[in-house]
Amino acid sequence: MIEFEKNLEAALKAHDQSDDASHDLYHARRVKLAALDIAQRRGEGDEEVLIAAAYLHDLVNVPKNSPDRAKASKLSADAAEPILIELGVCAENIEKIKHAIEAHSFSAEIEPQTIEAKILQDADRLESLGAIGIARTFYIAKTMNSNLFHGGDLFASERDLDDKTFGVDHFALKLLKLHKTMQTKEGREVARERTDYMIGFLKQLAAETGFTYPEGDDLWIEEETRKVAS
């Protein structure tokens, strides 16, 4: 399996010509580790399928602000097939890998049908939470020429949320809700921990900028992270 991973990393490096640090080789490695951890804790999931899907799930990287963003996972799945054939992956596993890649994307809105697809989706979404999620949020805000936050109304109490203009708004619009979308119990457990960490960051940011964190607000959730059904 070590040689298999080396070949997948080489294929990813050869195919990915972008400079997007939020979807680079290290992102793929972290998704792989998270996927294998979830699979191990569950006691199910094909290791070959998970490893290959994790490395190749962002093979075609379409910018977040592109109108073709929803097509990225399908393009990645199609691009992965010849690589997998060359590496000697059986036809059945190739189809499982392609489905997992297609279904991992938030924007594609494809329901995962296999345990490997569910695990990969969870593992990839965990990258948007916790310390890594905070770092990626502000990195992406910079790449989209957005402001970090609204200095006069941090939590949008008197304005509409707009994460294309203010990075912090993305927490309320998407990130603090992600734990609800996890497909596995194990993914939800990690997501709850990471969501709580992000809420702690937002409270600290509020304290440093003279604002009050909106306790009990449906958008800037807190207790919801502990009420997700297992």
Automatic annotation (TrEMBL):
Organism, scientific name: Pseudovibrio ascidiaceicola
- Entry superkingdom: Bacteria
InterPro entries recorded for this chain?
HD/PDEase_dom, HD_domain
Which Pfam families does this UniProt record tie to the protein? HD
The HD domain covers 24-129
Which PANTHER family does this one have? Answer: HD_PDEASE DOMAIN-CONTAINING PROTEIN, SUPERFAMILY HYDROLASE, PUTATIVE (AFU_ORTHOLOGUE AFUA_1G03035)-RELATED
Protein name, per record: HD domain-containing protein
Q: Which SMART domains match?
A: HDc
